[in-house]
Amino acid sequence: MAVSGSGSSRADNGYGSQQQQPPSRRRKGPGALATAYLVIYNVVMTAGWLVIAVGLVRAYLAKGSYHNLYYSIEKPLKFFQTGALLEVGLFTNCKYLPGIVPSSVVLTAFQVMSRVFLTWAVTHSVKEVQTEDSVLLFVVAWTVTEIIRYSFYTFSLLNHLPYLIKWARYTLFIVLYPMGVSGELLTIYAALPFVRQSGLYSISLPNKYNFSFDYYTFLILVMISYIPIFPQLYFHMLHQRRKVLSHTEEHKKSE
To answer: Which of 74, 87, 132, 184 is an active site residue?
Structure first.
């Protein structure tokens, strides 16, 4: 999830930094009730992804193999990844999240929706791909990313953000984002033959609605959509990394 805003005259509040504005126009932070809700939400999500991480490790140690680990974390993965839909609603109501700018809402929504789509409309719906190693690839990438991300938000809301978590938030994505996207695309690609053979979610003419839908073609279009959108997410985070971490280093030097 990409966030925006920074600068030498701005303080990092965990969601990105806010541009220097006159006092009367400066955006206020969330109130006590909103802060409590956001902290609880982020703590629960952090704990949920930790459960998934522990489940993966335990399954690996029990099996002695990284193959077919999806089944060991299937239920919590579906629950907590679907729970991220609440996040889209929060980001469309920016008054509760200072530092979020409208341009990040679209990118955040795409990332959340694409993961929920992959969880339910691909991995859940096409059983044959659940044994693919590509599933483990994106699950591991999501898990590490989300543990770091929700921890980042939790500590930021509490105004006690350790530098290590900030560094991890703005550094590990360099590897985790390409890793996750590769797993997602490979999984969709592996699902294509089974979707075409079964006609999953497809609607053929003639019918009383005079409407047709080819899920196979739709999945191909989804894969193509990664071409313009993923670079935006990736380079936006690289841009944020330079601003946020350089701002932190400048702040340390000034102390």
So the answer is: 184
